[in-house]
UniProtKB/TrEMBL annotation:
GO biological processes: DNA integration; DNA recombination
CDD domains in UniProt: INT_RitB_C_like
Superkingdom of origin organism: Bacteria
MF annotations from Gene Ontology: DNA binding
One family name in Pfam for this protein: Phage_integrase
Protein name per UniProt: Integrase
Amino acid sequence: MTAIRDSLARYVAVRRALGAKFYEPALALGHFVDLLEHEGAEFITTDLALRWATTPVLVERATWGRRLSQVRGFAKWMNAIDSRNEIPPAGLLSARRRRNPPHIYTEQEITLLMTHAARLRSRTGLRALAYTTLIGLLAATGLRPGEALSLDRCDVDLVNGILSVRESKFGKSRFVPVEESTREALERYAQSRDQLCPLRVSEAFLVGERGIRLNASAVRNMFVRMSRAVGLRPATKDGRAGYGPRLQDFRHSFATGRLVAWYRAGLDVSRELPKLAAYLGHVNVGLTYWYIEAVPELLELAAGYLSRNCPGEWP
C-alpha cells in the first residue's frame, strides 16, 4: 500500500467515525488515488485533480464539481500532513446542481421497463426478479432509489403492508404504507426470491444474482441500458446511451400523479400537500411544492383551481 493510499484509508475512517456513511466518496477517492499511482505522483496536484474530476463524459458539469469537491476535502487532509499536497481552489468547477424538469413516466413506459426487466438474462433468475420488483416498487411508492435498495427484510412488513425507511436523507426515518396490490407483489417477490436463493447470505430485501444487496452504481448502469433498449434513452454518435429518464424520476412521477389526481378531484391541495411531504420524507413542504412549478400540467391545474376557488386572489 502506498503512503497516499494509506492516508486515504485513515481519512475515510475518520469521516465515518464522525458519523458519515461516506460510501460513494470513499469509492471515488479510491479511483483518484489509482490515477495518482498510475502517474507516479507522490502528492496531490490541482492539475491531476481537475483531470480526474472531468474524466466522465456525458455528465452534468455539477458532477465534475462534486468529484472535485470530494478531492478537495481529501486534499485539505493531506495538506495538513504535508503542505506539498495542493488544495484545488474553490470555484474551479461549480458543484451547484440545477434541478432539471423531471421525466414523468407514463403507464406504458413503466410497463415497457418492467417487461424488459423480466427478460433480463439471469443465471439464477434473481436479476430479472429483482429489477422488475424494484421498478414496480419505485413507481408505486415514490421511494428514493437508495431507500428501496437499503431495505432489509425486517423493514418490509408483508402482513400489514408497511415499509420502514431508516435514516434516509437528512437522517430522517419514516413508515411508508403501501397499497394492497403492492403488498401482494412484494410478497410474491419474497417467496420467489427465497425459492431461487434458499441460502440467506444477506439481510437485504432486494438481492441480485449472488443473493447479496443490489449495488446502487450497478443498478443505475443497468437502468441506463434498459432505458435505451425500450427507446427512452437515445444513443449518441459514439454508441453510448445519451441523456434520459432516471430512477429518481419514478419518485417525481409518483408525486405529480398524486397532485394531478387531487386537483382533478377538486381537493384543496394546500391541505393535502403536508401529507404527501411526510410520505415522501421531505424536510419541508416547500420541496413538495416544487413539483407544481416543474410540471406544466400541474401549473395549469393549479391555475384552474385558483381561478375557481380564489377568484379575488387570481388575476
